[in-house]
Design a protein that fits this description.
250 residues, Rossmann fold, 8 strands, binds zinc ion
């Protein structure tokens, strides 16, 4: 680590249970962020700030004016630009040590496995069940930990799957069927700070996983009610009928 890096990361390095080892681990690791919307904006900013080695940002959308209240990395001048590309440029300006790749594409059957197998952690910052399911299956298969976040209206959800160490329960134990009535922010609304809080929590789990410091539990579902200001937590249990993790076990 050079002089400037020692200075830049000094506040993290001061933490006795993080230290230089945590920082060096972080700087040698790669993270994939799927979706550069409200969750991905925040998570990517904190991961770049913390000094993760490589960040890959995947999104095929362009920035709209109605994104600006939540997607706080973007400026008014970015409206109309690609989210992945604009985020890469803005993060490069904040954290030139971090290698940032912008992939202007949707996650699909053809690219999911390759993208996931190249990284040490995946952040699910998507906004639809179809992509989530595809992403979770790819992480499950590649044994890559997955940090999932979601937010709608005043409510947020977080769950991390340590597919690197635990094969079950999995995401499909939680959501066995693809919901056709997937909630979308476009129709249901969203409170900006709620999605921001979820993105921050995702980045914290990712920092702990990549640095090897701190505890990250498998399959703990955390639900945040932003209107009431309260959290609920529950441990996911395996669905014995799960199409993914139950069948593979038998
Ligand atoms: Zn399962």
């Amino acid at each position: 680590m050079n002089e400037s890096q020692l200075n830049r990361y000094s506040r993290q390095l001061l933490l006795p249970n993080f230290d230089i080892e945590g920082q060096l681990n972080l700087s040698s690791k790669r993270a994939l962020i799927v979706g550069v919307g409200g969750l991905g904006n925040i998570a990517a900013t904190y991961l770049a700030g913390a000094g993760v080695g490589t960040l890959t940002l995947l999104d095929d959308d362009c920035i709209e004016e109605s994104n600006l209240p939540r997607q706080v990395l973007f400026n008014e001048s970015n409206v109309g630009e690609s989210k992945a590309k604009a985020a890469k440029d803005l993060l490069n300006a904040k954290a030139s040590d971090v290698t940032i790749n912008a992939v202007e594409s949707k996650l699909n059957e053809h690219n999911a496995e390759a993208l996931v197998s190249e990284v040490d952690v995946v952040l699910d910052c998507t906004d639809n069940f179809k992509t989530r399911k595809l992403l979770h299956r790819a992480c499950y298969k590649a044994k890559v930990p997955l940090v999932s976040g979601a937010a709608i209206r005043w409510e947020g959800q977080l769950i991390t799957f340590r597919y690197d160490t635990d094969a079950s329960p999995c995401y499909e134990c939680l959501y066995p069927e693809l919901s056709d009535q997937a909630l979308s922010c476009n129709e249901n609304g969203i409170m900006g700070p709620v999605v921001g809080a979820m993105g921050v929590m995702q980045s914290l789990d990712a920092v702990k996983l990549l640095s090897g410091k701190g505890e990250v539990a498998h399959g703990r579902l955390k639900i945040f009610d932003g209107f009431a200001g309260s959290w609920r937590e529950m441990t996911l249990t395996q669905d014995p009928e799960c199409a993914l993790c139950a069948l593979e076990k038998s």
